[in-house]
Amino acid sequence: MLELANKRIVLGLTGGVACYKLAEFVRRAQDQGAVIDVVMTEAATHFITPVTMQALSGRPVFVDAWDPRVPNNMAHINLTRGADAILVAPASTDFIAKLAHGHANDLLSTLCVAKGTCPLLVAPAMNREMWLHPATQRNVTQLQADGALILGPAEGNQACGEVGSGRMLEAHELLAELIAFFQPKTLSGRRVLITAGPTSEKIDPVRVLTNRSSGKMGYAIAQAAREAGAQVVLVSGPTALDTPYGVNRVDVESAAQMHAAVMSEARHSDIFIAVAAVADWHVANASDSKLKKNPDGKAPDLQFSVNPDILADVAGMADGPYCVGFAAETENLHQNAEAKRQRKGVPLLVGNLAQQAMNADTTELVLFSQQGSQKLPVLPKLDAARRLVQEVARQSSARPR
Ligand code: C5P
Q1: Is residue 310 within 6 Å of ligand 1 at its C-beta?
Q2: What residues contact 51, with CB distance under 8 A and at least 6 apart?
Q3: How many angstroms is it from 21 CA to the middle of ligand 1?
Q4: Ligand 1: does its nearest atom lie under 6 Å from the Cβ of 396?
Q5: Given 181, 215, 238, which residue is the final one in a domain?
Q6: What is the pLDDT of residue 377?
Q7: What local confidence, expressed as pLDDT, does residue 378 receive?
Q8: Which of 275, 305, 311 to mutate to test the pocket of ligand 1 (most atoms within 8 A of CB)?
Q9: Catalytic residue status for 160
Q10: Is 1 a domain residue?
C-alpha cells in the first residue's frame, strides 16, 4: 500500500547544509506515491541545485517569484491550491523568523503566507546556539500558535563541528512524520504501553527456549499508536525489526524481565496492549555453564516453572490502564478468544489464527469485547494496526476510570 497516494506536497528548501537530505526524501516520498513540487529560496541553491531537485522530483522547480515559466506570476497561488501540505525543510533561522512575522519577499515565503488552510510543516536545521536563541524560540512558539507543526530538530553532531540540538531530522524520519501527519490523532497525548515479539528463556548460556513470533504485529501497533498522537513505550523481546520512528523501545529477553519492565511502566500508562508471545514456562534449573551431552545418551532433566501472566497482572491493577489482549489460536477462534478475554479480565481481546498470522505480513483480526465480536478484513499488519488503534481509542475513551 502506498502511504502517500494522491498526496501533493509542496517542499520548500531554504539555506542549510541539510538540503542534501531532501534529495533522498523526495525519492522516498515518491516511492510512497506522493507528488512533490519543489520550491527553493535563493540561499538553498547554494547547497543543492534546482537541476538535482528537478531531476528527482520530475517536476519544475521554482526559485524566483518572477519565473517566466509562470505567465501570470501566480506561482505562489498555483502551487498551494489543492496541495495537501507544505513542508519547509530545511527551515533556516532566518526563514523561521520570516514565517513567524508573515514576511513575503520571495516565492517560498509569499507562498507560505498565501497558503490559506493548507497545513504547514516546518523542519528546523541550524547551529545549536541559533536554535536556542530566544528570538528563534519565540518565533517557533509563534509558528506553533499559528498552527504550524514543528518537526524535530534532533540532537547530535552539527555541520559546524559543534554538538547539540538543531540537526534536521533524517530523510526517513521526515517521511515518517509526513505519513503520520495524515493519520487521525485519536490518541493525542495518551500514553500507550505495548509488549511485542517472543520471549527467550534461558536453558544454559548458549541455549534458549523461544517461539516463532516475529514481533511484526506489535511493532505495527506501536507505529500506529504513535501516528495517532500517543507517547509509546514498546517493551520488546528479541526481534530483527527496526524500532518504529518516535517509539521508545525497552529491550528484554525473558518473561520475567518483560513482566518487570511492564509493571514499572504500567502505572504511568493509559492503555496497555499485550501483543507479545510470552513463553508460558521458564527453565527452573537453567544452568550457568553449558550443559554437556550425557555420556549415557540421556536428555538433560529440565524442570519448568510457570511464568507470570503479564496481561492478567496489569488487568488486575487498581486504577490500571485500559487493557487489550491478543490471542493467536489454531482452532475455535471465537470460543477460545472470548473465553480468554473473560479469564484475563480485559475489556478488549484481539483474536487471530496463529497459522495465518505468525511471521506473516497480513492478518485477519477479530475484536472481542462485551458488546460482541467484530471481524476486520485481511489487511497488511500496519493497516490492521491502524484500524485496531482507532477502535482502542474509541472504546478506551468510553470507559469510566
Ligand atoms: O494465555 P495466553 O498466552 O494465551 O494469552 C495471550 C495474551 O496474554 C496475549 O495478549 C499475551 O501478550 C498475554 N500474555 C502475557 N503474559 C503471559 C502470557 C500471555 O501478557 N505470561
Answers
A1: yes
A2: none
A3: 42
A4: no
A5: 181
A6: 95
A7: 94
A8: 311
A9: yes
A10: no
* Assigned domain for 143 exists: yes
Place of cell 514543528: 150
The mean per-residue pLDDT over the stretch 207-226 comes to 96
Q: How confident is the model over 27-60, as pLDDT tens digits?
A: 999 999 999 999 999 999 999 999 999 999 999 9
Query: Whose C-alpha lies nearest to ligand 1, atom 2?
Result: 327
Tens of pLDDT along 262-290? Answer: 999 999 999 999 999 999 999 999 999 99
Does 216 lie in the same domain as 163? no
> Of 310, 333, 348, which is best to mutate to test ligand 1, by the most ligand atoms within 8 angstroms of its C-beta?
310
Q: Does residue 182 register a pLDDT over 70?
A: yes
Cell of 138: 519565540
Tell me how far apart the alpha carbons of residues 22 and 89 are, in angstroms, rounded to a whole number. 7
Which grid cell is 224? Answer: 500506529
Residue type, 369: S
Q: To the nearest 10°, the Cα dihedral for 38, 44, 49, 52?
A: -40
- DSSP, residue by residue, 78-111: HTTTT-SEEEEEEE-HHHHHHHHHT--SSHHHHH
Domain stops at, among 160, 181, 202:
181
Report yes or no on 234 lying in a domain: yes
Of 73-82, 144-153, 160-169, 337-346, least confident by mean pLDDT is 73-82
pLDDT value at 349 more than 90: yes
- How far apart are alpha carbons 192 and 45 in whole angstroms? 43
| Residues 303, 314, 261, 205, Cα dihedral to 10° | 10
Cβ–ligand 1 distance for 25 under 6 Å, the answer no
Q: Are residues 360 and 388 in the same domain?
A: yes
Q: Report the separation in Å between the CA atom of 80 and the middle of ligand 1, taken as the mean of its atom positions.
A: 50
Nearest atom within ligand 1 for CA of residue 280: 21
Please indicate whether residue 183, judged by its CB atom, sits closer than 6 Å to ligand 1.
no
User: How many domains are there within the chain?
Assistant: 2
Which one has a higher pLDDT value, 259 or 295?
A: 259
CATH number at residue 208: 3.40.50.10300
Q: From the CA of 310, how far away is ligand 1's center (Å)?
A: 7
> Is 0.90 surpassed by the pTM of this model?
yes
Domain containing 393 equals: 191-398
Q: What is the CATH number of the domain that holds 31?
A: 3.40.50.1950
Distance in Å, CA 137 to ligand 1 centroid? 46
Most ligand 1 atoms within 8 A of CB, residue of 273, 278, 348 to mutate:
278
Q: Please write the tens of the pLDDT for every residue from 242-259.
A: 999 999 999 999 999 999
